[in-house]
From TrEMBL:
Protein name: DUF7869 domain-containing protein
Cross-referenced PANTHER family: INTEGRASE CATALYTIC DOMAIN-CONTAINING PROTEIN (PTHR34415:SF1)
Annotated DUF7869 domain residues: 5-97
InterPro entries, per the entry: DUF7869
Native organism: Dryococelus australis
Pfam families xref list: DUF7869
Top-level taxon in the UniProt lineage: Eukaryota
Amino acid sequence: MTGKAHMFMWDESTAKRGSQKVGSCLVKYINSLDDEIKHAIAYTDRCAGQTSNVNIIMFWMYMFEGTNIETVHHKFLEPGHTFNECDQDFGLIEKRKHNEMHVYVPDHWIDVVRRANK
């Protein structure tokens, strides 16, 4: 664990927020990992449109065929108990947003995220 967050951003005029886009972000992230990493743990909520559907199952199958990942523990958070470490990162982004004067276009959000660090 590096304590480092990785954010993938796009505006919804470019793409929506469905499972195919989530899978694309995961492919990009996993392909950036060291080849010696063989095991992964994924924590997701129960959002059927993004993380609990056949597209994500197919994504994991693709990862097993195309990377050195051998095992994945995909853990689904229980509704109502979904606080995760990354939620702190989103809290930092929200806090930083309140310090910004002008957040009008997607590029402004990218700047807010870059400046929201511990």
